[in-house]
Amino acid sequence: MNINSNTILITGGTSGIGLELASKLISLGNTVIVTGRDQKKLDEVKNRFSSINIFKCDVSKQEEIENFYEEVIKQFPNLNFLINNAGIVQELDFKNNKIDLNKINSEIAINLTGSIQMASLFSKHLQRKKTSAILNVSSALAFVPVAMTPVYSATKAAIHSFSQSLRIQLKETNVKVFEVAPPVIKTPLMDRLGYDHVKGSKPMEALELVEVIIKNLKDDNFEILPGQSKILKLISRIAPNFIVNNLNK
Ligand SMILES: NC(=O)c1ccc[n+]([C@@H]2O[C@H](COP(=O)([O-])OP(=O)(O)OC[C@H]3O[C@@H](n4cnc5c(N)ncnc54)[C@H](OP(=O)(O)O)[C@@H]3O)[C@@H](O)[C@H]2O)c1
Q: Which atom of ligand 1 is nearest to the CA of 188?
């Protein structure tokens, strides 16, 4: 895929992977739009990159994304690349605590339903473009769950599955469907969770991840497995119990 001169929407583009992707894609000559829930963070991003376009939009709110869709398509009719990146992670203890259902629903809505609804809303528009793409950000935990973050792991496995189905459904169209399953990346999300969360992991810099993503987009490698993700996926197929038990010792 050509990675210059696109109009690219990145959900959750105000920190971590989304922000690093935005920075790189701007430097490559693309028009970039980012979303997030926090206006202050959006304003900081706008101060840093004058050419960037910011929209406050919570991907977990159906009405918000419907209104956002109308507005962004009106302002950026050339939009041809959707990156579903927004995500959160929560440690949830099902043994000792009664878990607030709102917390569970919110994690599913942000990580899973939000991406599915965005793909659904933008699909027709993207199909009208000469070349277009959707990139879903899943995780290495799509292949091997980490028990401390059970809902997160489940949403990422579902995003992997959804990406496969979407790719097949859109095969005969102009929309290329990519998925990246990052290993542990140094970002505010992992700063909050702690880097010993995934046993034996060697955190990768967000910039390094972005370089891998760009190379694979250019080469039309639809399933992008950076660093340790490749080996995790492989072992999860060959010895699934071994890898789940080892990661959760
Ligand atoms: N870091 C890792 O090790 C790692 C590994 C594998 C996969 N990932 C995935 O990579 C993606 C980005 O994560 P990150 O590590 O870069 O995290 P991050 O630094 O915390 O960034 C998350 C971004 O998503 C936004 N966001 C959160 N909830 C949102 C919502 N409801 N609507 C719109 N935007 C929302 C945040 O902005 P606001 O809070 O202002 O809304 C922020 O811009 C996530 O999908 C994550 O699951 C990360």
A: 19
Catalytic residue from among 69, 152, 178, 222: 152
Using the atom order of ligand 1, give the atom closest to the CA of residue 84.
45
Give the other-Cβ count within 10 Å of 129's Cβ: 18
Give pLDDT tens digits for 197-246.
Answer: 777 788 999 999 999 999 999 999 999 999 999 999 999 999 999 999 99
Question: What structural domains and CATH numbers belong to the chain?
Answer: 7-247 (3.40.50.720)
Residue 152 appears among annotated catalytic residues? yes
CB 64 within 8 A of CB 58: yes
Reduced to 3 states (helix: H, G, I; strand: E, B; else coil), residue 36 is strand
Helix (H) or strand (E) holding 223: strand 223-224
**Spatial CB neighbours of 182, under 8 Å, sequence gap ≥ 6:** 17, 137, 139, 140, 204, 209, 226, 227, 229
Residue 135: strand pairing partners: 83, 178
Whole-angstrom Cα distance, residue 130 to residue 7? 12
175 CB-contact burial (10 Å; exposed 0-12 / middle 13-18 / buried 19+): buried
Give the pLDDT confidence of 146-170 residue by residue, as tens digits.
999 999 999 999 999 999 999 999 9
